[in-house]
Write a structure and sequence with these properties.
The protein is built from 12 helices and 7 strands. With about 280 residues, the protein is of the alpha/beta class. The protein has 2 domains: about 60 residues; about 200 residues, Uncharacterised protein PF01937, DUF89, domain 3 (Rossmann fold). It has a 7-stranded mixed sheet, with helices on both faces. It is globular, with a radius of gyration of 18 Å. It comes from Halarsenatibacter silvermanii. Pfam families: ARMT1-like_dom (PF01937).
Length: about 280
């Protein structure tokens, strides 16, 4: 997905937020913002938002010495999400279709996105589970393909929602072999191997690094190991807007699971901001 005009202020806010988390030195923060401002005229219509994120992450780390500005934010989100797990386990246990409920909870958990702002009320967003709606849904097709599949590759997104992914993995692990791919290095609040180990994701799935250095998945930036799993997967499930942006134009079948949190993504997939989608790429 190429960069849209609406992406520029979002990238500015993300850069400022990351810089402020990494440093309280106003001079350094200003230098980081100035670097982004100097980049803007050089960003063409064919540029990728995720590539800009890589460049700005490198700038922030170089100027502040901090490689993971969102470390505390991720930790707090994981703690909050864990406190809600027992209630959502009950919901899934009582559901007519536990797999559907697990997917829905996983999608609602996708609201925890530092890429669009730190102010997220996790409990309030997860209250949406009562609505039980994917505005765009290929769930029936997913279940049909799942019956024939031997394995699935899941591309994870943020660290807080990964707690709720455990519920989805519990439902899937009796059906297919699962590979769960995380970011190669800290990228906003996305899950890395560090958080995956903390959450014991390997109790449910094989955990690998995608090799991706940004808050999404662009195949050219991924490792050979990841690409091997990607090509051989019977099913692919990509979570969140970053993975959608990076993979939307790929030829392989990919189910996308997300909450739309910005205009360009909402327009791309044909739903309104704040709505949930679970669909197979066209």
């Amino acid at each position: 997905m190429n960069i849209q005009l609406e992406c520029f202020p979002c990238l500015f806010n993300q850069t400022l937020e990351s810089a402020q988390l990494a440093s309280d030195d106003r001079e350094i923060i200003r230098e980081i913002i100035d670097t982004y401002a100097e980049m803007v005229p050089e960003i063409g219509e064919e540029s990728k938002t995720l590539e800009v994120v890589i460049e700005m992450h490198d700038v922030i780390e170089e100027k502040t010495g901090v490689s993971d500005p969102y470390a505390d934010y991720k930790r707090k989100n994981i703690e909050t999400s864990r406190s809600l797990l027992p209630e959502f386990k009950k919901i899934i246990a009582q559901a007519e279709d536990p797999l559907f409920s697990a997917l829905l909870i996983s999608a609602i958990g996708n609201s925890i996105d530092a890429g669009v702002g730190l102010e997220v009320d996790i409990e309030s967003n997860l209250g949406e589970i009562s609505k039980g709606v994917f505005v765009r849904s290929d769930y029936g097709l997913f279940k049909k393909k799942l019956k024939k599949a031997e394995n699935i590759l899941i591309l994870a997104d943020n660290a807080g929602e990964a707690v709720f992914d455990e519920l989805l993995l519990e439902e899937l692990q009796e059906i297919v072999d699962i590979t769960y791919a995380v970011r190669d290095r800290p990228a906003i609040n996305d899950i890395t191997m560090k958080e995956a180990d903390m959450l014991n994701i390997d109790n449910y799935a094989r955990v690998i690094s995608s090799g991706s250095p940004t808050s999404g998945t662009m195949l050219d930036y991924t490792s050979e190991e990841f690409q091997d799993y990607y090509r051989k997967a019977d099913l692919r499930l990509a979570k969140g807007m970053g993975n959608l942006e990076g993979l939307y134009e790929e030829d392989e079948e990919i189910f996308h699971l997300l909450k739309a949190k910005c205009g360009p993504v909402s327009d791309l997939i044909g739903i309104d901001e704040g709505e949930l989608a679970f669909f197979l790429n066209d």
